[in-house]
Design brief:
A hairpin with a 6-residue loop joins strand 3 (59-62) and strand 4. Strands 1-2-5 form a 3-stranded antiparallel sheet. A two-stranded antiparallel sheet has the order 3-4. Helix content is 41%, strand content 29%. The longest helix is centred in the N-terminal third of the chain and has 20 residues, at 19-38. It is an alpha+beta fold and 93 residues long.
């Protein structure tokens, strides 16, 4: 599902809201998650999962075009751990 499909689904479920309001709500939702992660925090949505960040150490990488060795600095990357309900829905027969 892409963002526009999600907006359409939300608008269909909430016909009393204007499309601009649905888009603003979705933007706020994603912005708040991103802001919390940028601060080093964690976002937990019960029944869905938890967003957090993980630290990746610095390492030696390789430029695939030239084969030259390059230094890749340490960085934080987003991580998602699905909740129990989400795992159950994905593995239901």
């Amino acid at each position: 599902m892409i963002r526009s499909e999600l907006l359409q689904a939300l608008a269909k479920e909430n016909p009393e809201l204007r499309s601009e309001d649905v888009e603003r709500a979705l933007d706020t939702f994603f912005d708040e998650i991103a802001e919390r992660l940028a601060q080093g925090g964690r976002v937990e949505l019960r029944g869905f999962g938890a967003f957090s960040t993980r630290q990746r150490d610095a390492r030696k990488g390789r430029n695939p075009r030239t084969g030259e060795s390059v230094d890749v600095p340490e960085k934080r990357v987003p991580y998602f751990k699905p909740g129990k309900d989400m795992r159950a829905r994905l593995n239901a027969d």
